Amino acid sequence: MNEAEAFAAVRKSLKQRRFEHTERVTEEAERLAEMYGADVGKARLAAILHDYAKYRSPAEMRQTVTKAGLNRNLLYFGDEILHSFVGAYYIMEELGIEDEDILSAVRYHTTGRADMKKLEKIIFLADYIEPGRSFPGIEEVRETAKASLDEACLLSLKNTIGFLVKKKKPVYPDTFEAYNYYTMNK
Ligand code: DGI
Ligand code: FE
Ligand code: FE
After folding, report:
1. Is 89 inside any structural domain?
2. What total of structural domains would you count in the chain?
3. Residues around the ion ligand 3 (C-beta < 5 A)
4. pTM
5. Count of C-beta atoms within a 10 Å radius of residue 73
6. Maximum separation of any 2 CA atoms in the chain, in Å
7. Which CATH number do you get for residue 23?
8. Which one of the ligands is nearest to 87 CA?
9. How far is the CA of 152 from the centre of ligand 2 (A)?
10. Does the C-beta of 173 come closer than 6 Å to ligand 1?
11. 142 domain-assigned
């Protein structure tokens, strides 16, 4: 699947606002890939596809977790985390993506995980710092991303966990494990 085909697929499945977010994530992922010596083509393709499943219904995504044999724990942490895990499955099944680097970058783009591969970190961060985002503390993450992918991932994990805790939302174990990994391996 080339970029034009990937863009066509997400244009159909995303709302305009989310499509524009996707375009910005793609630019940001390209920038980070160039800066940190990752495969720019893979970074762009993973970014284009990262939110492919964003508008599938929670009911359908829950069924997919069971059908595809994904971790059943996914069902208990709120619907927001489903689109990344089932998204990786859908781009494989529906779009024929087989590249494991791209699949895992999509799979972990919301939660992160311990010891991420370079492309996973790039998509995780690009999604967080694309220029359309405005969370508290984001400027610090943007600045840090110029110096260290690991440090920037750590800051973004810290912010996300803080946000979830404040709202008394459950934190998926991968997110905690990612935070622990990057704070213990500095
Ligand atoms: O899909 P996007 O909006 O571009 O961004 P995303 O895939 O990072 O999703 C962000 C949402 O996911 C936001 O509402 C916070 C939520 N989230 C991130 N990590 C966790 C989480 N929700 C839970 N319950 N647990 C997590 O670990
Ligand atoms: Fe997402
Ligand atoms: Fe996104």
Report:
1. yes
2. 1
3. 51, 127
4. 0.97
5. 12
6. 42
7. 1.10.3210.10
8. 2
9. 18
10. no
11. no
Q: Would residue 127 count as lying in a domain?
A: yes
170 C-beta closer than 6 A to ligand 1: yes
Q: Determine the Cα angle at 161 with ends 135 and 53, to 5°.
A: 75
Give dist(CA 113, CA 179) in Å, integer: 8
Alpha helices in 50-99, H assignment, sequence order: 58-67, 82-93
pLDDT in tens, 90-135: 999 999 999 999 999 999 999 999 999 999 999 999 999 999 999 8
Distance 50 CA to ligand 2 centre (A): 6
Q: Please tell me if the CB atom of residue 75 comes closer than 6 angstroms to any atom of ligand 1.
A: no
Domain with 18 in it: 3-134
Ligand 1, atom 25, residue with closest C-alpha = 171
Q: How far is CA 178 from the centre of its chain?
A: 13
C-alpha span between 101 and 42 (Å, rounded): 8
Choose which residue among 110, 125, 169, 174 to substitute to test ligand 1 binding: the one with the highest number of ligand atoms within 8 A of its C-beta: 110
Task: Give the number of the atom of ligand 1 that is nearest the alpha carbon of residue 169.
Answer: 24
pLDDT digits (tens, 9 = 90+) for 36-79: 999 999 999 999 999 999 999 999 999 999 999 999 999 999 99
